[in-house]
């Protein structure tokens, strides 16, 4: 079975990102691959991992992890075959918490697939452009389809300090399903590479 993590890419209190991640999980739960027992999706919330600002003394490339929070994070990411990153856009880029979490690891990301669901004033598209570059460096295949949710047209917001209600336009769910199709397919196609080069057990 292919396991896909829906990564909640913000740790801010009252995050709109958590609302979007729940919607992604709901749609993913109806995906044909799930019904057929070929794939499973699980929300992975960065806020639940308590990662500090990167504090490993050895670069992640060497897999020599020293801290308990890093080991826990590495075990989680290693257990998945692909990812759907749900991200807002902060100052023309991805949140620092998400970049930090990505930088903790290396081999655990390799030879997997990723898709992106973004949200923001500009649909979060600029955050995704940066994440695509980062994922490529980590040997993660980026799928083409992308969901970009506009704060103006895909949410009902009465108080800007609250997440609001997600009201995705009629084209958004079909686009999300295309993204999920691609992530599942690419995760499956890349599986022989992961089998041939298993992630080494972190030391330390």
TrEMBL record:
This is NAD(P)H-dependent FMN reductase. It comes from the Bacteria. InterPro entries: Flavoprotein-like_sf, FMN_Rdtase-like_dom, NAD(P)H-dep_reductase. GO terms for molecular function: FMN binding; oxidoreductase activity. Residues 3-152 form the NADPH-dependent FMN reductase-like domain. GO terms for cellular component: cytosol. SUPFAM superfamilies: Flavoproteins.
């Amino acid at each position: 079975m292919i396991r896909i993590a829906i990564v909640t890419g913000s740790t801010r209190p009252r995050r709109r990102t958590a609302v979007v991640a729940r919607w992604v999980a709901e749609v993913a739960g109806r995906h044909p691959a799930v019904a057929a027992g070929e794939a499973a999706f699980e929300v992975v919330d960065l806020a639940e991992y308590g990662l500090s600002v990167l504090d490993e003394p050895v670069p992640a490339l060497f897999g020599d992890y020293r801290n308990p929070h890093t080991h826990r994070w590495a075990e989680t990411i290693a257990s998945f075959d692909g990812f759907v990153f749900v991200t807002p856009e902060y100052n023309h880029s991805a949140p620092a918490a998400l970049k930090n979490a990505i930088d903790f690891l290396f081999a655990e990301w390799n030879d997997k697939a990723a898709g992106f669901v973004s949200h923001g004033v500009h649909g979060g598209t600029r955050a995704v452009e940066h994440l695509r570059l980062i994922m490529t460096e980590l040997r993660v295949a980026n799928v083409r389809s992308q969901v970009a949710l506009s704060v103006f047209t895909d949410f009902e917001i009465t108080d800007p300090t609250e997440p609001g209600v997600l009201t995705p336009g009629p084209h958004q769910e079909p686009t999300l399903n295309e993204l999920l199709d691609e992530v599942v397919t690419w995760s499956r196609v890349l599986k022989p590479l992961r089998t041939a080069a298993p992630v080494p057990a972190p030391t330390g």
